[in-house]
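> call design_seq(struct)
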């Protein structure tokens, strides 16, 4: 019997938060009644409730079900069970009745035909449309309550002032983040924790008030938009739900998402490791369609990451688009070749033109916080004095601050030799992080 690898299990995670939380659930002492046979694996996991959560996974297609209240598919407990299975610590055992009943119900739905197979991608979703609607409405009510509490909290920050908020301890921020998790609005919890990070950096970042105000404004806009979600355009409403924390399982996206085939240039790649979880983000530019999308992958530290497309190259591939936030996240379904050199970088004529393209994205998803930019024919300017920023000046004398590491800045200077260069990278609303560069009109390479 072949079990999944740990990286395959984490590839099933619906979002970064679930992937980060899963290893913490894959601890043998948290589980009782662990077992497996030729069809399923199961166990009972200690959670925040009085009773452990019953969790099970079908070995034929890795569909899962858990009695926890999470609406993520699979949830962190199911991912933890699959990680234990991957580690080989789930023993063979006799199947309990509650697992046998679930497997029998799945078999019955499969035999009934596609129209009745609502749980085929994930049996945690009820087959009854009315029950599904009731579960969705229940979660919406929890988010409603969380949003109202967050609005009051933001109003308190506004009355007290940024300096008072910046002086608060981490536990003050973490308490509100945990409240948002309880309200099943994990995306809002992420914004609150980013606010805490800005506050913690206040002692050594001169721009912390601007960054804190930017995050507070984004949170306030999310709360206001949620109260008026029924009046929003469909694309913005989908982006809103993604930012709040509603997710769609990768298996659902693979089955029903829009497909796009193109030659994709990897214009940027960023890999992070916080000691528990690795993450990979690639910016992909479709040469035929002009579409920019992002690929994300996660893995436990020490385990290999799913690599995405070859970095710094152009590859013909078919991708599947996630709904929601912009630029859209993708799954890589199929590669049609092994990749070719990156070639000339795409790019706008100047920073104003590049930012006007960003405005089109923000019109749909105003909460997009990191966006790709590419510009041709810019000149790197070292700092004019102590404390000054490195700048990239375009042909119209527009400038953009560079916020990358010293190694990247000096690599850019060496590449340019004082002459114009083409660049592509990430913009966070305050500065630009170059990730690919080329001498003007030359062959692009990744630099950061």
């Amino acid at each position: 019997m072949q079990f999944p690898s740990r990286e395959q299990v984490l590839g099933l995670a619906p979002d970064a938060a679930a992937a980060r939380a899963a290893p913490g659930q894959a601890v043998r002492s948290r589980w009782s009644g662990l077992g497996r046979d030729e069809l399923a694996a199961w166990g009972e996991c200690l959670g925040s409730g009085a009773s452990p959560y019953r969790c099970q996974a079908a070995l034929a297609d890795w569909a899962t079900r858990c009695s926890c209240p999470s609406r993520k598919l699979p949830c962190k407990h199911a991912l933890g069970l699959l990680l234990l299975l991957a580690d080989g610590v789930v023993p063979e055992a006799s199947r309990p009745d509650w697992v046998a009943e679930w497997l029998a119900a799945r078999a019955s739905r499969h035999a009934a035909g596609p129209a009745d197979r609502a749980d085929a991608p994930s049996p945690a979703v009820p087959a009854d449309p009315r029950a599904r609607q009731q579960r969705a409405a229940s979660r919406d009510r929890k988010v409603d309550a969380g949003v109202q509490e967050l609005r009051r909290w933001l109003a308190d920050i506004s009355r007290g002032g940024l300096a008072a908020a910046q002086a608060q301890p981490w536990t003050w921020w973490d308490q509100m983040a945990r409240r948002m998790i309880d309200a099943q609005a994990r995306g809002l919890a992420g914004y609150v924790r980013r606010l805490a990070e800005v506050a913690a950096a206040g002692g050594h970042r001169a721009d912390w008030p601007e960054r804190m105000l930017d995050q507070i404004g984004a949170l306030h806009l999310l709360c206001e938009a949620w109260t008026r979600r029924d009046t929003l355009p469909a694309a913005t409403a989908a982006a809103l739900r993604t930012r709040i924390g509603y997710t769609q399982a990768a298996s659902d996206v693979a089955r029903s998402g829009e497909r796009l085939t193109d030659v994709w240039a990897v214009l940027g790649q960023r890999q992070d490791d916080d000691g528990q979880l690795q993450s990979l983000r690639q910016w992909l530019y479709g040469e035929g369609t002009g579409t920019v999308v992002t690929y994300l992958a996660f893995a436990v530290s020490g385990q290999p990451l799913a690599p995405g497309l070859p970095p710094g190259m152009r590859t013909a591939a078919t991708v599947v688009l996630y709904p929601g936030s912009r630029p859209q996240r993708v799954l890589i379904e199929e590669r049609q070749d092994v990749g070719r050199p990156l070639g000339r970088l795409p790019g706008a004529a100047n920073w104003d033109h590049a930012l006007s393209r960003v405005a089109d994205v923000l019109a749909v998803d105003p909460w997009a916080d990191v966006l790709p930019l590419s510009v041709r024919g810019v000149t790197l300017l070292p700092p004019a004095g102590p404390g000054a920023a490195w700048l990239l000046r375009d042909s119209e004398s527009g400038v953009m601050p560079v916020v990358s590491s010293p190694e990247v800045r000096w690599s850019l200077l060496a590449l340019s030799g004082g002459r114009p260069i083409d660049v592509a990278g990430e913009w966070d609303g305050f500065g630009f992080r170059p990730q690919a560069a080329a001498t003007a009109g030359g062959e692009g390479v990744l630099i950061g």
